[in-house]
Design brief:
Blueprint (H helix, E strand, L loop, with lengths): L6 H15 L4 E4 L3 E2 L5 E9 L3 E8 L3 E9 L4 E6 L7 E5 L5 E9 L2 E10 L4 E9 L1 E5 L15 H4 L9 E5 L6 H9 L3 E6 L8 H14 L5 E8 L13 H26 L7 E7 L14 H7 L3 E6 L7 H21 L7 E6 L16 H14 L8 E5 L6 H16 L29 E3 L6 E5 L3 H5 L17 E6 L7 E6 L7 E10 H5 L15 E5 L1 E14 L9 E11 L4 E6 L14 E11 L3
Parallel strand pairs: 11-12, 11-18, 12-13, 13-14, 14-15, 15-16, 16-17, 17-18
Antiparallel strand pairs: 1-3, 2-3, 3-10, 4-9, 5-8, 5-10, 6-7, 6-9, 19-22, 20-21, 21-28, 22-27, 23-26, 23-28, 24-27, 25-26
């Protein structure tokens, strides 16, 4: 007589059948695995196909995580974090084809769980959770000062920037559709409004009321970033020898900063703003932490209030390899000095690098330096230098003064270093460019082929601080550049007899690759005899720029006039030229003429024009 199977045997049989159709996931990593200074893998699981699975991971301290799920082509997947609320859903993948779904969240330090639900034969081929730094875009609503680049709106940012950031800085008066706000928050990402310091505030209460008002008016904001607190170089005078006037200023500044400290502490402790984050820009000429003006407790108060210190480090280009390495080392040493004086400050520090790459104020100073390689070298330090380990985040300031390529390039850097955790350089190009020689005419007319229309119509000249007037570095009152970058230029005087031209063979191009060419020109008399003019009254560029042997992208190429700022007091109108082309061979021919068209004279003859900053570098699609 056969025995009936027990309930336990039936359950065992069902379990075996289930296991045969849905194998156990393969947990490749379930503890922190450092990839670079700012990224670590916390969880890595492959082959998830069971109806419901849970996996633990731990982030040692509060911060951002990035979750990536490579899902199969069928069925549906839902991935949730800690399952506390519907808002903790990271991924909802419908049966619309295989793809990779991604999400970010800011989480508390400690242990967390990822829950994966698969239905209708769905699979998650790989699930990865990483600890990442805060990746800040500056910002949405900050459109380029060069209008020809167009709007840096959500549509422009959606491919290269938005998938690779956690936070976007916005103007404090921005108005966004509710659908945009909801979608951004659904992704776990933040809106942070830029605000100032109320110069009229005399008490901590007044500072508090000023900053809190921005959050009250726009409840969708996740925080504010205060622009700015200044740390200057120390006075370098022995104790007790500071002049009474300077001591009075020090006392006033320290008193103001104590009021700001108290206001920030109050915001941190106020339940209405407990889930809001205060960021503080800290700038100035000092590379190390000097507390003379801000007082001895200011930085520690920011740390204790869980603020983010957005340390401004605008590292401009310099002319040789050794000076470049020295500039980067000075940056590293400065961060190390902050950490030595205020232990733990790096965990609250967002390094704000200089994105501003174009006029009227930029740090893209050297036409023989690839600005994007220079940016890459700075990010590579964040990823690799031991002194920079543990930084809370990175920002690049600001898209108002950045061309469209450079804005997009930040997203590529963030993906490479801040999400994928790479340690090698993103770019493969040398720092110093070798396509055009003597691009700033600092060596006179060497390297250029000249065809003057008449004797004396072409010459090499200079003008004090012209590089600053062009906008090669921001800041009113700063001394002239020690290397006088941009003060030299080629000068041409237009003639009715024919065009003046200067030309050069472009070298070391990679066939099939895209490049950008920039050039700055202005009316010489506007420079040496300034008179107030409107844009309509300004003498615009007369001539043309020809690139022979390349495929020119007419749609993306343009010339646009802009007024110099902040100097001189009477602005000089300068023309910014931007051309995009694809190389056909290793060489090409660049020719600049001061006649708009060949064989067709067009006044005003006698006009004098300047030409410099012919920067040619690879263009990142």
């Amino acid at each position: 007589m056969k025995q009936k199977p027990t309930i336990a045997a039936v359950l065992l049989l069902l379990w075996c059948c289930y296991r045969a159709g849905a194998a156990e996931p393969n947990v490749l990593a379930s503890s922190e695995k450092k990839l670079n200074n700012v990224v670590a893998t916390l969880l890595d699981v492959s082959g998830i196909s069971q109806p419901s699975s849970s996996f633990k991971f731990a982030r040692p301290r509060a911060g951002w995580i990035f979750a990536s799920a490579r899902c199969g082509a069928t069925g549906s997947v839902k991935i949730a974090l800690d399952r506390k609320s519907e808002g903790d859903t990271l991924v909802v993948h419908a049966s619309d084809g295989a793809r990779v779904d991604e999400a970010v969240r800011y989480v508390a330090g400690g242990e967390h769980q990822i829950h994966v639900d698969c239905a209708d034969g769905a699979t998650v081929e790989q699930l990865v959770v990483r600890a990442i730094p805060e990746l800040i875009h500056c910002g949405l609503g900050f459109n380029s000062a060069i209008k020809s680049y167009g709007l840096y709106d959500m549509e422009f940012l959606k491919k290269d920037v938005l998938p690779n950031i956690t936070t976007t800085i916005v103007p404090n008066n921005i108005e966004l559709p509710q659908s945009v706000i909801d979608d951004w928050h659904r992704q776990g990402k933040r809106f942070v409004a830029e605000v100032g310091i109320n110069a009229q505030a005399k008490t901590a209460d007044e500072h508090f009321a000023f900053w809190a008002a921005f959050l009250d008016r726009a409840p969708f904001l996740d925080g504010i970033i205060i622009n700015e607190f200044i740390v200057n170089n120390p006075s370098n005078r022995p104790a007790g020898t500071v002049s009474p006037e300077r001591q009075k200023r020090i006392d006033e500044e320290q008193s103001r900063h104590r009021d700001c400290e108290a206001a920030i502490k109050r915001m941190h402790n106020d339940d209405r703003y407990r889930n809001k984050t205060v960021y503080a820009y800290v700038g100035g000429s000092g590379k190390k932490l000097n507390q003379e003006m801000i007082g001895p407790t200011f930085v520690r108060s920011l740390i204790d209030s869980d603020c983010r210190i957005a340390l401004e480090r605008y590292i401009f280009e310099v002319s040789n390899e050794q000076a470049s390495q020295d500039a980067l080392q000075t940056f590293v040493d400065g961060i190390a000095d902050w950490e030595a004086k205020e232990p733990g400050v790096k965990q609250h520090m967002v390094v704000a690098f200089g994105l501003f790459s174009m006029p009227p104020g930029g740090i893209n100073k050297q036409p023989n330096v690839d600005y994007h390689v220079w940016m890459d070298q700075q990010m590579n330090l964040v990823a690799n230098d031991p002194q920079l380990a543990g930084l809370a985040g990175v920002e690049w300031w600001t898209s108002i003064l950045a061309d469209e390529e450079t804005v997009r390039f930040v997203g590529k850097l963030y993906r490479h270093y801040g999400i994928e955790g790479k340690t090698e350089m993103l770019t493969r190009d040398p720092l110093f460019l070798a396509h055009i020689q003597n691009a700033d005419f600092e060596q006179g007319l060497a390297g250029w082929t000249l065809q003057p229309a008449e004797e004396g119509a072409i010459a090499a000249k200079s003008f004090p601080r012209y590089g600053r007037i062009e906008g090669r570095y921001m800041g009113l009152g700063r001394p002239a550049d020690p290397e006088h970058i941009g003060d030299t230029f080629l000068w041409m005087k237009r003639s009715a007899n024919g065009p003046n031209t200067f030309s050069q063979t472009i070298k070391n191009l990679e066939p099939g690759r895209l490049y950008s060419l920039k050039m700055l020109t202005c009316d010489y008399q506007d420079l040496v005899n300034p008179q107030k003019k409107t844009e309509g009254e300004a003498q615009k560029f007369q001539g043309r720029v020809t690139l022979a042997g390349v495929e020119l992208d007419e749609k993306r190429s343009f010339s646009e006039i802009y007024p110099s700022s902040p100097e001189p007091p009477i602005p000089v109108w300068i023309t910014y030229h931007w051309k995009i082309f694809r190389a056909k061979a290793a060489t090409a021919k660049l020719t600049v003429s001061d006649w708009p068209s060949e064989g067709k004279p067009d006044g005003p003859f006698g006009q004098e024009q300047t030409f410099n900053f012919l920067e040619l570098q690879p263009y990142h699609e």
